[in-house]
Amino acid sequence: MNTPLTKVLVVDDDPALRQLLADYLNRHNYDTLLAPDASDLAERIMRYSPDLIVLDRMMPSGDGAEACRRLREQGEDIPVILLTARDETVDRVLGLEAGADDYLGKPFDPRELLARIEAVLRRKKGASALTKNDPVSFGPFIYSPVTRQLTKNGKVIKLTGGETNLLEALVSNPGKPLSRERLLVLARDDEEGERNDRAIDIAILRLRRVIEEDPRDPRWIQTVWGVGYRFAP
């Protein structure tokens, strides 16, 4: 079986640079997706599920750093490398404060960008490997990603596949607000048919009835108004 290629989304208003990076990264076994601006960045992430985003800092259609900040506020932790024509300390700080994982000033050698992409992906993979299989304890409950089981005082709580996916998405991102759109992707369960925002709200309600002492005043799964939900350990 062939290993899936790592997908990199390049967002830049310069078509020549986009094509140059696509050609270079594709030669190095990446699947490169291209976008001229960040206006529909969240939708592109949902549609293509890239492993990393290369995002221009200054575009006529908007600020790449602000686009990165919005992703982080929505609970999206996909790695982001910001590009800018202004390689100044204040711009690097602003980019990193917005949640970028790395920063590269223009002009740059594609080999340096490739090295930074690989370094960021290694860090991401290492951090995920340390935590992805660890059980999550909250109150009398324990969720095990290995067995995909929720227990209360040692007794297994039965959940549907979609509810399990939803719970795992929440507990794997403690404290991070996750948008309904993001949860739709993370909680997808083909056996339960097509999901929509209403289905996510219903699944959240069911989870709250299982784990909350008072579902109307939730302690663990909190509503983030205007965004979605978050797990508050």
Write a compact overview of the structure shown.
With 233 residues, this protein is of the alpha/beta class.
Describe the structure.
This protein is an alpha/beta fold and 233 residues long. 41% of the residues lie in helices and 23% in strands. The protein is built from 8 helices and 14 strands. The strands form 4 sheets. Strands 2-1-3-6-7 form a 5-stranded parallel sheet, with helices on both faces. A 4-stranded antiparallel sheet has the order 8-9-10-11, with helices on one face. Helix 4 links the parallel strand 6 and strand 7. Helix 6 packs across helix 8. The longest helix has 22 residues. The chain is elongated, with a radius of gyration of 20 Å. About 2% of the residues have low confidence.
